[in-house]
Amino acid sequence: MDNKIICIAGMHRSGTSLFTDYLQQLGVFIGKDLLGSASSNKRGHYEDKEFLKLHVEDLKLKGLDPDGLLHVKSPLYFEPSILRKAKDLVNRRNAEHSLWGWKEPRSVLYLQHWKEIIPNLNIIYINRPDIEIVDSLMRREIKIEEYRRTLYRNPINYIKSYILFKLYLRKRIKDYKKTCDVYRESVEKVKKDDSRFLEISLHDLLKDNLKVYQLIETFLSVPLNKVDITNFFNPQWMKQDSPLIKEAKCEDIFLERNIDNE
Question: Which of 50, 117, 149, 226 is the most exposed place for a label (fewest CB within 10 A)?
Fold first, then answer.
């Protein structure tokens, strides 16, 4: 069976959840046990828990942060015990589905190894400007921090926490930008002269999803359900700006790429 296998790749907060939902409605199987919604992603993450578990286990074995927001040299390769599980998972999916894929942001760190495991792997990369990604990550983090501050009953401690977080803000923005650089570097290493690689701008998806639908159908060379994304998602729900970055006067951080191979 000539399976069509798709990895939906992209940095955290790049719009991959929305795209994966869209791809599922086009007729692609994207997993049966998916990571659900959260306060920062109320529509659901659409992450396949089996792939998530593989990546988290491997990162832990390497002594790395399992959230995948790293400043490491990529690509990463699975440890032998995890590699066996990865191959088994792919074999099971191939036996069950002729057209399937998965979305899990940490996959980007392992893209080169996934291409070796699955030689016919199709990669659809969702591209969103770094400044918008980091703005979204920071707005999520500030919500968490605001909640934490509500736990302080002493007003003085509350104010101290707020001041410290403001001082911390620029450093966190720099850290997230470095992570974006790592993810983009990993993507660039696999996309060169690759006919199985398709890059889709998040802005294009929100602006003209029917044109994007045609790109996907041509790329995969299979008939897909024709679905208008506006039937289930309002493009205005997705910020295409960076208000927090601008307010913090940190736009200069995004003028150049800087990867620390720690």
Answer: 226
List the beta strands (DSSP E) in 171-211.
197-201
Whole-angstrom CA distances from 160 to 149, 156, 157 are 10, 6, 5
| Whole-number pLDDT of residue 70 | 86
259 three-class SS: coil
Q: How many CA atoms lie within 13 A of 111 on its CB side?
A: 30
pLDDT value at 162 more than 80? no
Q: How far apart are CA 252 and CA 144, in angstroms?
A: 25
Higher pLDDT, 178 or 46: 178
Please state the pTM of the whole predicted model.
0.85
Domain CATH for 55 = 3.40.50
Residue 247 Cα distances to 105, 166, 175, 242, 251, angstroms: 28, 12, 18, 9, 9
Q: What is the pLDDT of residue 149?
A: 53
Cα 255 from chain centroid? 22
Judged against a pLDDT cut of 90, whether residue 242 lies above it is answered with: no
261 is a domain residue = no
| Cα 2-218-184 angle, rounded to 5 deg | 90
Other beta carbons less than 10 A from residue 93's beta carbon: 20
> Is 262 part of any domain?
no
| Listed range (60-69, 103-112, 138-147, 242-251) with the worst mean pLDDT | 138-147
Which residue has 């690759």 as its token pair? 194
Parent domain of 75: 4-255
In a domain, 186, yes or no: yes
